[in-house]
Amino acid sequence: LQVQRGTQPHVAELSALRGLFSASPLALSGLQVAHARALSRVLFLTPLLPAPILRHRLRSHVLEIRQLDRALARLGTRELSEEELRAACYLRGLNSTHLSAGECRAWLEQWLGLSCRLQASELSLLANSLVLLSLNYPRAR
């Protein structure tokens, strides 16, 4: 509802919904094909595949992002150059063209706060957060 109103949800609010995304119909394995295709487009994956393959590729890609997130959390965002910050945001769905390095870092730390808390069974929430946390981010529209 917040996203429809043009605001961005807080990580704590998304975390509270974890259970909804680990069971059907919102778990990656149970997503409707149209939903899986839309998420695939956000991740720059080919959306025109049979449903089981599409869901498998989506799961694999989001799992890879989650693993990168855990490594980045250990490293710390302060170690990234501005170019690396922007690339990390872009990979996670945020258009950082009009953001400062500090704004990119703040968003990425917020993202990591969610990603690093999620279990593998909650990957659907992470995939959907690519949209939920970036769509209405100030100055990134």
Automatic annotation (TrEMBL):
GO terms for cellular component: mitochondrial inner membrane. It is a single-pass membrane protein. One of its GO terms (molecular function) is ribosome binding. The keyword tRNA processing does not apply. The keyword Iron does not apply. It is found in: Mitochondrion inner membrane. One of its GO terms (biological process) is intracellular monoatomic cation homeostasis. PANTHER family: LETM1 DOMAIN-CONTAINING PROTEIN 1, LEUCINE ZIPPER-EF-HAND CONTAINING TRANSMEMBRANE PROTEIN. This is LTMD1 protein.
